[in-house]
Structure formats: C-alpha cells, structure tokens
Fold this protein.
Amino acid sequence: MPFINSEMQLLLETLSFKNLNLEKKLEKIALSGFCFKAGCYLLKELTSLRLNVPFNPITDPIGYECWVNDLNTCDYCVNCHMEQAFLFIYMIFKNWKKEQSVNKLVAIFSSSEIGVNIRFHVSRDCGEWISNDLEDFIQPIMKIDSNEIFFIDSLLNSSFLNVEEIKSKFN
C-alpha cells in the first residue's frame, strides 16, 4: 500500500478528476520514457535539464535518480496541481510497467503553496530517498510504487474520493 501522511489523506478527499486531462507539457515528459545511464533510470526529457548533479550515480543511484527525475507542477501547469501530479504519476507508471517487468519505480510527491514536487527512483535494496514514516512531514506527502498503480486508478475513477474506503479494498 502507498504511504500517506494524514495531511495528504485530507487533501486527497478534496480532489476531483472529472473532465481533467494531463497538461501537454507533463504528458510530453511522461511519454518520453526513461533512459539507462550509469546504472540509473532517468526521464529522458529531464536529463538535459540536470547537468550539474551533486550525486554520484555509482555510489548513490537513488540520490542521482531523485535529483534528475524531479519536477514541480508549478513549472508546467497553472492550477489543479495535485490532480495533475496524480495524472502524471499514473502515466509514468503505466509506461514504466510496459518497459519494466521486474524493477519497481517509486514516486514521492508532496504539496506546497506553489505546486506539487514529484521525484522518481527505482526501488533498490541499498536504501530509499525517504522512509515510510511520513507523519513527521508538515506538508502533505505520499510515497507509492509502480506496483500500486491500482490505487491511483481507483482515485482517478472514483466520483467520491474516500481514501480509507479505497485503501480497504486493496488490503
């Protein structure tokens, strides 16, 4: 199951996906797919934007991926930031599952006053970007992996978002 703090749970119950499509700029990034560089999976559209990465892909592949695979919705859309984040992550996960049958992709995203920050990294035994205990975060935050795409699918197709009800269906 995805990891959600209580602030995110409250926010999720206010979302509406009715008649909403992914912004074209975000869609372009999602459809660009991933490239494999130095043992890391990087969103193709973002690699050219991240030239001075302060992480070594060999010693810290998760840090490297999270630095390159990082975007804020305020750079790509005007409103509905959380909804756009979910649509974006959903498209990324769908494309990932077409390309990858073994590796899990992790999305970590948090909301702020100006938008939603989203980061992706491959799940590895060597560590993780953040722990699963998210309650200490002040802002709404969620951590979900590509094997949990059904959770996002349920949110997108629900006319009334009750997160606890959706989570209970998959326990």
